[in-house]
Write a structure and sequence with these properties.
Bound molecules: 5'-deoxyadenosine
Number of strands: 19
Largest sheet: 6 strands, parallel
Shape: globular
Radius of gyration: 23 Å
């Protein structure tokens, strides 16, 4: 009897992706993961066992950029144990640095900018054949395969409406890293939304740096029309969009937010500053009064609306008085949440020429005062929600046993006890708010 040949099973290759920054990057990572999975490479949570490591970077502030370089320094050491390991720099730092990144990090295998994400599979193959590829820039023709997206959220499906940005905010690097603005045709957007609905997603999140500036390429339709078209598709339970640019919000868009119950009463509307002089130097194209008025209109249309915002403190030349005006705006507008950052000079932007740098200690102190003020306001708002009932989408497990987490339609995080029967991830369950923390609510299932 002849012995059966021994079959040595080769372990599947693994990839590891680390993602920084905005929702656009989150979706780009899902697209890269999808392409690798189509090649039979499987995800891992452990970078040390990966054969492909991708760092999907953010360059909106200097700190984010530094972080990705220090991570590259750590991961290249894994090549000592795994000679086959490929390391790729992706995202906005990749676009910004291009070739330079290959010079700076000797073990870096390839560089992929945000507009070239669809080419990842070929780039990996080219590298395996020896080429160190730099794929940056903004080609007219771009690959986007909706079937090659590893949609990792249990409940939220993301759809890009508009790429890049044509605004010229003087602090911002995004127009350089994500290129000129391009809207996607409505038919493509609707096809992708339908695809997500077929897969059972509860929530559709429309993405763009200035999402409400969407227009049908070569046509007349604007974002209000698009909202109407998507919100009325059968099966859209929750519709959200991020990020809106204040100046581009028209009365028709406000009206759509008011009339479609499935458009979530949550809106991220970055104000950046509460002082007109700073807004002017930032090149934002609106005044404090216009912003406040827009917030008023939105709340009139949708009384349960939760508004969140971004603020930059220590913009060049920001005076104490100008900062006080920002505090005043925060006081007046009562945001449900607020993301605030110390101004960080970015290469090629105009802001550094527009005023004297603010002392870093002064900027830190302003940031702390802003956070402290917001915390008080947020806690007050959250306390006022005690006793209210919400349908929450179940998003995960809590840190303590027996606890689960979810999101209200207004996007607040809710912690609730599972009760006898835990709720399925991605399902909707009704809860009553029983307590308030600064950044979340405690609730009971009803
Ligand atoms: N410095 C600090 N914060 C910045 N942001 C954008 N560019 C900078 C910068 N140079 C902030 C803005 C923006 C958010 C995504 O990041 O508040 O809305």
């Amino acid at each position: 009897m002849t012995a059966l040949p021994t079959i040595v099973a080769k372990a599947p290759r693994r990839f590891y992706i680390e993602t920084w920054g905005c929702q656009m990057n989150e979706l780009d990572s899902q697209r890269m993961a999808g392409q690798l999975m189509q090649q039979g490479i499987l995800p891992t949570r452990a970078p040390e066992e990966a054969d492909v490591i991708l760092l999907n970077s953010c360059s909106v502030r200097d700190k984010a950029e530094q972080k990705v370089y220090s991570r590259l320094g750590e991961y290249r050491l894994f090549k000592r144990q795994n000679a086959d390991l490929l390391i790729g720099l992706c995202g906005c730092v990749a676009q910004q640095e291009g070739e330079r990144a290959l010079d700076r990090v000797p073990d870096l295998d390839f560089v992929v900018g945000p507009a070239r994400v669809g080419e990842l599979a070929q780039i990996v193959s080219r590298r395996r054949q020896g080429e160190r590829v730099v794929a940056t820039g903004f080609p007219e023709e771009r690959t986007y395969d909706i079937d090659a997206v590893a949609r990792s959220g249990e409940y939220k499906g993301m759809v890009t409406l508009i790429e890049g940005c044509d605004k010229n905010c003087t602090f911002c690097i995004v127009p350089t890293t994500r290129g000129p603005e391009r809207s996607r045709p409505l038919a493509n957007v609707l096809a992708e939304v339908r695809h997500l609905l077929d897969y059972g997603f509860q929530e559709i999140e429309l993405l763009g740096q200035t999402v409400n500036h969407w227009r049908e390429p070569g046509g007349d339709l604007d974002f209000a029309d698009l909202l109407e078209a998507v919100a009325t598709l059968p099966g859209v339970c929750r519709l959200r969009f991020i990020t809106s640019y204040p100046r581009d919000f028209t009365p028709r868009m406000v009206e759509k937010v008011g009339t479609h119950a499935n458009i979530c009463p949550y809106l991220h509307l970055p104000v950046q500053s509460g002082a007109d002089n700073v807004l002017r130097r930032m090149g934002r194209g609106y005044t404090r009064e216009q912003y406040v008025d827009l917030a008023r209109q939105l709340r009139a249309a949708r009384p349960d609306l939760a508004l969140s915002t971004d603020i930059i403190v220590g913009f060049p030349g920001e005076s104490d008085d100008e900062f006080e005006q920002t505090l005043g705006l925060v006081e007046e507008t009562r945001f449900a949440s607020l993301y605030a950052f110390k101004y960080s000079p970015r290469p090629g932007t105009a802001a550094p020429r527009l005023g004297a740098p603010v002392d870093p200690d002064v900027a830190s102190e302003r940031l702390q005062r802003l956070f402290a003020r917001q915390e008080t306001i947020q806690k007050e708002i959250n306390l006022s929600l005690v006793g209210k009932e919400y349908d929450v989408v179940v998003t995960g497990w809590g840190r303590e046993p027996g606890m689960q987490m979810g999101r209200t339609p207004c996007h607040r995080i809710v912690h609730f006890a599972t009760g006898a029967e835990p709720a399925d991830l991605g399902s909707v369950t009704r809860v009553r708010v029983a307590g308030a923390l600064t950044h979340s609510l405690k609730a009971e299932r009803v």
